[in-house]
Write a structure and sequence with these properties.
heterodimer; A: mainly alpha; 76% helix; globular; B: mainly alpha; elongated
């Protein structure tokens, strides 16, 4: 004990450069900006501040990504307290990729949000809205950046609480947003509490909260009942947050009734972060070599994923509301991601991580498009958006690009990830699964066709006849995302390269997590 | 399997049994009660059970509060004979309690707004209102689409 206290006082404060602090700045910038927006209180400044914070976060994420794409690991000790005792931020290829996805989507959606939010939310709430948005971003970035298991829970709750508030803001258009937010609050809290029970069991079994340290100690002691219980609680808890098929009930209502900008942001980020946490725990903390991890993936996750691909797609076909259809399609797409994880091969994981990214931008395009349509015709029912292909050509064209990417047509981002997934299934010899992936894409053709039919093959009537393309502030972010959908359909070096590196690191398990730790030169603090 | 359940095992794990009972009570209340406020109460019981799990695992038999004895100059006098409880789970749970309070207050705020909009906080009544809205919408928009309801 005596040596412990003295050692703590003698921690060498490394003289670090500004760049060394990037992992913590990634989370701190939006975190500090959120209260600043409220304290300044000027409505005119709320949006510029939020946008600046989100943009800085994106730049930081891009710099971090460049630093770790070659397989390096950045370990940052918060407050100079060295891991495993202190809280550690650990950036490797897997979470740098997720950080970049979250912050980039947040920035693009914020650009779009200015007009959309002004239309959908009363003016008196704007400052608080942007503060909640920034807190949500902080939480999501924090979950991805941290290497400490309890810290994951804290950031998860920061983002969740902000999310409930953001969804409830839809109540000015439709009061059902309130019950959707309430349902999500109940289910989200149960999920987060299950997760924290799992972490409690892990702490009992290992005596540490640092994920890398945990992984080593679990590998040492092998499988026992406490560790298996922890695994079960964490998978179910995160499954609720990620909307894994039978646990998805909160998602359709929440996405349908939330304001358009919020839906575009959440669809691209919130469930993706939960899937990242699942990945992190399944592969980095619990080694996939354990029978319980392996069996859970093969006998529970894979069948549920395939069920999600079909059941949710079929429900999507029968929706009469564009936005609700997209919500169900999200549940189906999460199925593809989980299927890739369940294959437990490098190609499968690569496919899952690439699909996580590609589906994020695809859904951002589509939900932003829905918001643009709703701005002009007041809703996204198929009978209301009839003929908008003629009166809102630019918006409709972007929606078609997003739709094609959702189906997985060659030349779009969606094709790349589905191709890798099919390849992974064939590599493993699971050709029926490969066939199922292709066949389920046909269901996507049907539900996307219903939108195209309404947009292009009907004559515009009523409000649709007078509609025009939305202001440039909405059209530009919409097209940035749409062009990204096309760009990542051709330029696969960044996405597949980073995803492959992430997959290799994840499959390497605990040794991958320990690389760099314990080597004081690699640890920076202040 | 059953042979593990000796008297000593059951008594020795009393904190876990209480945790399980509380946790299941909380979850049951969330699922079974139709009143939105009662659901929040259930959620609170559920969360408190987890707090108790964490706090009880920090306890070490014979352990005292983790405060180092100091002499009158304020210098710490360490005595290796003293056993301390693990303070970390307690600190973690302080954070979780704050999260729990935030969740509860947000949940209650949502209930106030729901009551303003729907005039009730009974789940069945709210579901009924929402089903009526959905049916009317599907009717209006489905018919315009060519009678597909």
């Amino acid at each position: 004990m005596a040596t412990g206290t003295e050692a703590a006082q003698e921690v060498v404060h490394h003289a670090a450069t500004f760049a060394d602090h990037l992992p913590v700045l990634q989370v701190l910038v939006p975190f500090v900006a959120a209260p600043l927006v409220v304290i300044i209180g000027a409505r005119a400044l709320a949006w510029p501040l939020a946008f600046a914070a989100s943009f800085i976060a994106t730049v930081i994420a891009a710099v971090l990504m460049l630093g770790v794409i070659d397989g390096e690991v950045i370990s940052y000790a918060i407050g100079g307290w060295l891991p495993p005792l202190g809280i550690e931020y650990r950036i490797d290829a897997a979470n740098a990729f997720v950080l970049l996805l979250i912050s980039a989507i947040s920035t693009v959606v914020l650009l779009y949000a200015k007009v959309s939010v002004a239309d959908e939310i009363p003016e008196k709430n704007h400052t608080l809205f942007y503060a909640a948005y920034l807190l949500c971003l902080t939480g999501l970035l924090g979950v991805a950046a941290t290497g400490d298991a309890f810290n994951v829970f804290v950031f998860l709750e920061i983002s969740s609480l902000a999310t409930y508030v953001l969804i409830a803001q839809g109540s000015y258009r439709d009061r059902r947003a309130l019950t959707a937010a309430y349902d999500y609050l109940i289910m989200g809290t149960i999920g987060a509490t299950f997760f924290v029970i799992g972490i409690g069991f892990l702490y009992m079994a290992t005596g540490t909260l640092n994920m890398a340290d945990m992984a080593d100690r679990i590998a040492e002691q092998g499988s026992n009942r406490t560790v298996r219980a922890a695994f079960a609680f964490i998978v179910v808890g995160m499954g609720l947050k990620a909307a894994v098929y039978p646990l998805h009930l909160w998602l359709p209502n929440a996405y349908t009734h939330a304001p358009s900008a919020v839906t575009a942001f959440l669809a691209g980020t919130a469930t993706k972060v939960a899937i990242y946490v699942l990945l992190r725990f399944m592969f980095s903390v619990f080694h996939p070599g354990f029978a319980f991890t392996y069996n859970t993936l093969e006998f529970i996750i894979v069948p549920l994923a395939i069920l999600a691909m079909y059941a949710a797609s079929i429900i999507a076909i029968f929706q009469n509301d564009f936005k609700r259809m997209l919500a169900y399609s999200s549940v189906a797409q999460i199925g593809y991601i989980l299927l890739g994880i369940g294959l437990l091969t490098e190609t499968g994981l690569t496919g899952a991580i690439v699909h996580l990214f590609n589906h994020g931008i695809t859904k951002a395009v589509l939900f932003m498009g829905v918001g643009a349509l709703a701005l002009r015709v007041g809703g996204s029912w198929y009978d209301r958006i009839e003929g908008l292909g003629k009166t809102m050509p630019w918006t409709s064209a972007a929606i078609v690009i997003g739709g094609l990417s959702l189906i997985g047509v060659p030349g779009t981002a969606g094709f790349i990830s589905k191709w890798v997934l099919v390849q992974a299934a064939l590599e493993k010899g699971w050709w029926p699964v490969a066939l199922l992936i292709v066949a389920s894409s046909l269901l996507a053709v049907i539900y996307v066709w219903r939108v195209v039919e309404a947009l292009y093959l009907k004559a515009p009537t009523g409000r649709a006849a007078e509609a025009t393309d939305p202001p440039m502030m909405m059209l530009i972010p919409l097209w940035i995302a749409a062009l990204a959908c096309l760009w990542f359909g051709f330029e696969t070096h960044v996405t597949i390269g980073a995803a492959q590196m992430a997959a290799q690191e994840l499959l390497a398990g605990s040794t991958g997590m320990m690389a760099g730790a314990g080597d004081p030169a690699a640890v920076v603090g202040h | 399997m059953l042979s593990e359940f000796t008297w000593e095992f059951i008594v020795g794990h009393i904190n876990y049994w209480l945790f399980i009972v509380l946790m299941m009570t909380g979850l049951y209340v969330v699922v079974a009660r139709g009143n939105l406020v009662k659901k929040i109460v259930g959620l609170n019981i559920f969360q408190v059970s987890v707090f108790m799990l964490y706090i009880s695992i920090g306890k070490i038999t014979g352990g005292t509060a983790p405060i180092f004895p100091a002499d009158n100059q304020g210098k710490i006098k360490l005595d290796p004979e003293i056993i301390y409880s693990n303070p970390l789970p307690h600190v973690l749970i302080l954070t979780a309690i704050v999260v729990g309070i935030a969740t509860t207050s947000l949940g209650l705020a949502l209930i106030v707004r729901i009551h303003e909009e729907y005039g009730t906080i009974e789940e069945q009544a709210i579901l009924k209102i929402e089903q009526d809205i959905c049916r009317a919408e599907e009717q209006a928009h489905g018919e315009a689409m060519g009678g597909r309801v």
